[in-house]
Amino acid sequence: MQPGAARRDQRFTRDALIEMSQRRTSRHFTIVTPDLAKRDVAIIGQFNNVECHSGLRVHATDTVEAHDMHMKWRARPSVAFAIVLEGSLDVWLGDQPMQLGHSDRPIGHIWSLTEPIELRRESRKGTRVRKVIISVPPDWLKSLIQDRVAPESGLQQLLNKHRATATWSPSRHALSLAEQIVNPDAMPKPLQTLAAEGKAVEIVREALAHLLLSDEQETAPEQNARDTARAQQIRRYLEENVDRSTSLQAIAHDVGMSVGAMQGIFKRAYKTTIGNFSRDLRLRRARTAIEQEGVSISEAAYLAGYTRPASFSTAFKRRYGLSPSAAKA
Question: pTM for the complete prediction?
């Protein structure tokens, strides 16, 4: 549900919240404080919990806390990818604190649990929280990357270190996917599960891309901290404006650099040009639209910035090794 949209809230009692959490394999879930009776309302709002065929678990909420609450539960090993669209919570991974969410903007979080652990969260009465948390089995990710990522990479270190955490700035596309998971279209349950799984995988892909691109930056010795921050600023701008056709001059103006300096900083950080990076972003957006939203080839070509579907099809096949019509099938 977009902010300001009409809400059809449900009232979840203490026992309903505990039962729902335990169904999601959050073992030994309890509300520590306050001391609520079985039928006392604990949380008001909407939940969308999906157990995906691939083993991913998707937990999405648009809720308001009915009390100042302290909860705890036992979690299994997993890697979690979260987008917090609104609100914030205080969370503890064992005795390690972590703020989930940001006070004034959406934010992405990643954390890794390599062994069972007690998790805790505290929230304030009246706090609205809109979030998506995608829990991935560690073996799922390890089989995905196998020997394709260096052992010393930030991604491998995050997977191998208990309670490792990271953050990223989700693109507008990822934020849109998170909104759609929080507020799914009405459809039969199997189709809703497939839709949520596809969107969740794309969010995980973007978060992993952030980690891998960060690794590339760290391997560039000539890249100082200031240039690294500026390269990240340019990349965030490109991701957040993927649906716009923007000139290099306009981008440079918006990020506060000259065209030459901007291009040099970005190329040193990511080993590609701004034009190639933007083209890849648009092709990815078009592929997602074809595979998950059912758009036509001509519509996808427009999304990718091509005026001729034939040119789009050529670029698409060069990038992905299959034609747009094959991706649509």
Answer: 0.69
DSSP string, 180-249: HHHSPPS--HHHHHHHHHHHHHHHHHHHHHHHHHHHHHHT-TT--HHHHHHHHHHHHHHHHTTTS---HH
Task: Return the residue matching tokens 């957040």.
Answer: 240
Domains of the chain (ranges, CATH numbers) = 10-187 (2.60.120.10), 215-328 (1.10.10.60)
CA–CA dist 182, 196 (Å, integer): 9
Scan for tokens 């309302």, then name that residue: 41
Q: What is the pLDDT along the chain (329 residues), one digit of tens a residue?
A: 444 444 578 999 999 888 888 776 666 889 999 999 999 999 999 999 998 888 899 999 999 999 999 999 999 999 999 999 999 989 999 999 998 988 788 999 999 999 999 999 998 999 999 999 999 988 888 777 766 666 556 677 778 889 998 888 888 888 989 999 998 888 888 888 888 999 999 999 888 887 776 655 444 444 567 788 888 889 888 888 887 777 888 899 988 888 888 888 888 888 888 988 888 888 888 888 888 778 889 998 888 888 888 998 898 888 888 888 887 76
